[in-house]
Amino acid sequence: MTSAVFFALTLFAALGSGLMAGLFFTFSTFVMTALGRLPPAQGIAAMNSINAAILNPLFALVFFGTPLACAVLIGRGLFQWSAPGSAWLIAGCAVYILGGFLVTVLFNVPLNNALAAVDPAGSDGAALWTRYLSVWTNWNHVRTVACTAAAALLIVGLVVQARHGA
Q: What's the domain count of the chain?
């Protein structure tokens, strides 16, 4: 692949990290608080609606495309370790994959699945909703910080590359 392709992949990874950071930031700063103010059955219904609506092609492109681009960039960075900006790019990509993508897959999605399976009007629903609001939001804070850090690291990597004409 040419340097222009890797530049485009890096830019895509930085933008994807930033977009995901913004999405997660909104949930951490006000969406979950607003949903938590609703009665449990309504909060569950609203969150389940959000979780269904987010599954769309544009979100999938960013959500799955960013870690894929990051994986390619990590591979390139490891093979071209001495290239300017490589360490920044590897760090940014690793932070995104671990703290953004894997946290989502391992923690937030299973909680979403449990929420979708519960009867919102039942006592189990209310108990799960209380736990969900706390645990899901705490993991979301991790995703927010990780994706923000990943975007920053990737941008620094791009700047270092640009300064060295890479």
A: 1
Q: Calculate ∠ Cα 70-8-57, nearest 5°.
A: 70
Closest Cα partner for 153 from 75, 78, 100, 94?
Answer: 94
Model confidence at 166: pLDDT above 70: no
Residue-level pLDDT at 1: 58
Question: What distance in Å separates the CA atoms of residue 126 and residue 128, rounded to the nearest whole number?
Answer: 6
| pTM listed for this prediction | 0.95
CB atoms within 10 A of CB 117: 10
pLDDT in tens, 144-165: 999 999 999 999 999 999 998 7
CA distances 148 to 5, 64, 113, 114, 141, Å, are 23, 17, 26, 27, 11
DSSP code of 24?
A: H
Which pLDDT score, from 0 to 100, does residue 151 have?
Answer: 98
Q: Domain containing 20: what range? A: 3-163
At residue 119, φ and ψ (nearest 5 deg) are: -80, 110
Measure the CA–CA gap between 104 and 128, rounded to whole angstroms. 18
Give 82-100 pLDDT, tens digit per residue: 899 999 999 999 999 999 9
Cα 126 from Cα 41, distance rounded (Å): 7
